[in-house]
């Protein structure tokens, strides 16, 4: 898997898979990143998609992956930790610690931010509760913070927070990350509490602590909830991609181009309706356009 890819696709849902199929068919070298069960479709059943009466989301995704593989798409079942411009390319760091480079990027990670669903979470949002380490880490210099989550976004976020906070505590039922990222947690001094969950976020006008399911409490100034892969806020913060006026979805034109040349977006990350039919259509366009852009770079 060495060398430079033409198209790197972040997200393993229907939009990303359709993009992979179309860009691979245009003879582009395509890498798809992400875990299939991160897609919200994986746990759903589909009844309103043209020509399908009823089918499980898992079956849709597995079939789509087989199609993309048959056309030459390469897959890595890893989440992305960071992504940044690198000259005319994009440099993408994976949870294993590996770095891959691509001429173009398609963002197809979906839009939802999983909630912890505990008392105090909603009330203290923006007052110490955050869903974006890359956006808000700088507000917690020399403070003690907590991170909730078991996967790469939580672990990677906890590592990043050590550059700002005096102490970082990661709470999770069971850590599920690559060994390279697990080692980073240890090396950077993150306090990992496996088998311990946050059951309440404490504070009146700002976060003052967390109550844990073992009955103890911990004084913290911030709580970062990272229950999945990197979401729209983190990815756009890294790349400088323009969001809509509500800072919730990526703005993309009819060719699925974002405000950053070489970066495309498809699916729920571009806004409602949050439907598979829309994601597939946008993925088709994004895949064709990204492959065309990458091939044009070769000529130039």
From TrEMBL:
Domain FAD/NAD(P)-binding: from-to ranges: 5-283
Record keywords: Flavoprotein, Oxidoreductase
InterPro entries with a match to the protein in the record: FAD/NAD-bd_sf (IPR036188), FAD/NAD-binding_dom (IPR023753), Ferredoxin-NADP_redctase_2 (IPR050097)
Chain coiled-coil ranges: none
Keyword Oxidoreductase: yes
Domain of life: Bacteria
Name listed for the protein in its UniProt record: Thioredoxin reductase
Lineage: Bacteria, Pseudomonadati, Thermodesulfobacteriota, Desulfovibrionia, Desulfovibrionales
């Amino acid at each position: 898997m060495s060398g430079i890819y033409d198209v790197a696709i972040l997200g393993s849902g229907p939009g990303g898979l359709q993009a992979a199929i179309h860009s691979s068919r245009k003879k582009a070298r395509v890498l798809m990143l992400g875990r299939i069960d991160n897609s919200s479709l994986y746990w759903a059943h589909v009844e309103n998609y043209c020509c399908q009466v009823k089918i499980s989301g898992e079956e849709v995704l597995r079939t789509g992956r087989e199609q993309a593989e048959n056309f030459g798409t390469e897959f890595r079942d890893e989440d992305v930790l960071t992504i940044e411009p690198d000259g005319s390319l994009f440099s993408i760091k994976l949870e294993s610690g590996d770095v891959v480079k691509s001429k173009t990027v398609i963002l197809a990670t979906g839009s939802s931010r999983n909630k912890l669903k505990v008392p105090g979470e909603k009330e203290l949002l923006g007052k110490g509760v955050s869903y974006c380490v890359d956006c808000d880490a700088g507000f917690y210099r020399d403070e003690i913070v907590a991170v909730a989550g078991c996967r790469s976004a939580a672990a990677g976020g906890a590592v990043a927070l050590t550059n700002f906070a005096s102490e970082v505590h990661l709470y999770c039922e069971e850590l599920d990350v690559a060994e390279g990222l697990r080692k980073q947690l240890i090396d950077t001094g993150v306090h990992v509490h496996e088998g311990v969950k946050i059951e309440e976020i404490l504070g009146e006008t700002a976060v003052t602590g967390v109550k844990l399911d073992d009955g103890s409490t911990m004084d913290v100034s911030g709580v970062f909830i990272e229950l999945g892969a990197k979401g729209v806020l983190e990815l756009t913060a890294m790349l400088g991609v323009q969001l809509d006026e509500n800072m919730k979805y990526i703005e993309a034109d009819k060719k699925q181009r974002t405000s950053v040349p070489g970066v495309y977006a498809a699916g729920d990350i571009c806004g409602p309706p949050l439907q598979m039919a829309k994601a597939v259509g946008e993925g088709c366009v994004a895949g064709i356009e990204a492959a065309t852009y990458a091939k044009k770079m070769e000529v130039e």
